[in-house]
Amino acid sequence: MTAAEYLVSNGEAIRRAVEAGAPDDQIVEVLRVSGRTVQRWRKRLGLPRNVQIRPVRPVPHGTVRGYRRGCRCGTCADAMRYDGDKYRLARIGLTPPSHGRSGYKNWGCRCDTCKAAGAVVNQAYYRKRLALDVTP
Ligand SMILES: [Zn+2]
Ligand SMILES: [Zn+2]
Predict the structure, then answer these.
(1) Which of 6, 57, 64, 98 shows its CA 20 to 30 Å from the CA of 134?
(2) What spacing in Å lies between the alpha carbon of 56 and ligand 1's midpoint?
(3) In this structure, are residues 71 and 57 in contact, taking their beta carbons and an 8 Å threshold?
(4) How remote is the CA of residue 82 from the centroid of ligand 2, in Å?
(5) Per the structure, how many domains does the chain have?
(6) Quick one: which ligand is closest to 104's CA?
(7) Do the domain assignments include residue 32?
(8) Per-chain residues with Cβ under 5 A from ion ligand 1
């Protein structure tokens, strides 16, 4: 078997394994190839990248800890949002330590300085969305 033939047959094996839904670490173990080789074959064959990278420890879903571990599921995002809101809401009506962007966002201050800083941020966001053409 020539080197090229070997690569093609190996690629076929990887393709079959990927199509069967095998995770990378299993392909690496069974076919005795490196993880980079599997990734290269996925790319070459136009197959999706492996997304079954299993976390070492289970992610505590619905917590800020889960979000910080990189989980973006609904409950983790909600927990993060709630956590941020909790602190923001507690500060509403209080005077921010400094006026500007953080005064607008985190303290709910609507003095002229904070409103101007908030407008700059909102306009930048709006322009970015316009550039991406996602604004309805
Ligand atoms: Zn989660
Ligand atoms: Zn202010």
Answers:
(1) 64
(2) 14
(3) no
(4) 23
(5) 3
(6) 2
(7) yes
(8) 61, 66, 71, 73, 76
Q: How far is the CA of 110 from the centre of ligand 2 (A)?
A: 6
Same domain as 77, residue 107: no
The verdict on 39 and 64 lying in the same domain is: no
**Ligand 1 center to 75 CA (angstroms):** 6
Asked if 37 and 65 sit in the same domain, the reply is no
Confidence band of 115 (pLDDT split at 50, 70, 90): very high
> Among 54, 53, 83, 56, which Cα is nearest to 67's?
83
Tell me, yes or no, whether 78 and 110 share the same domain: no
pLDDT, tens digit (0-9, with 9 covering 90-100), for 39-74: 888 788 777 776 555 546 777 888 888 888 888 898
Could you tell me if 133 and 103 lie in one domain? yes
**Is 40 buried (19+), middle (13-18) or exposed (0-12) by CB count in 10 A?**
middle
Residue type, 132: L
Are residues 11 and 39 located together in one domain of the fold? yes
With b for 16 or more beta-carbon neighbours within 10 A and e for fewer, the 95-106 pattern comes to ebeebbeebbbe
Residue 39 lies in a domain: yes
Identify the domain containing residue 66 by its residue range.
59-91
